[in-house]
Specification:
By secondary structure, the chain is α+β, with helices and mostly antiparallel strands. Strand 4, helix 3 and strand 5 form a beta-alpha-beta unit. It has one domain: Gcn5-related N-acetyltransferase (GNAT) (Aminopeptidase), CATH 3.40.630.
Amino acid sequence: MSIRPATMDDRDVVLKLAKEQAKRYPLRVDEKKMLQLFREGVSSAQNFVWVAENDGRVGGVLAAFTGENLWAQRRNCSILLWVSEIPGDGAALLRAFRDWIVPRRGVKVAGMSPDLDIDKRALRLAERVGFKKNGGAYLIYN
């Protein structure tokens, strides 16, 4: 297994994974918007879009985007997509995100606010790797 930044070559598999997750919502998928966001994610150093690859096959992705914070002077970084088809890869992606975000002092808060029922093991994992539960969110404060 290797964890690495996504490239445009990963576009099709990442968008496939994202579309599968989107089925959980009562919304219509906007493929143009998904592609635009993916391009923005992989082309900007302020965003985190990494994939997990096993034997040349991408089976997981964690995508987090940095933006303005309404309540603090520094920015925030929100996980928008975190999915893995291969056991262990999701944990490796979350650890890579944690290691990437902690030294970024321009970002005050990073993490996720699950808005659907997700596997409780994922939430326990988030806490084990350093995210603090705050209400329904799992956050790292810098």
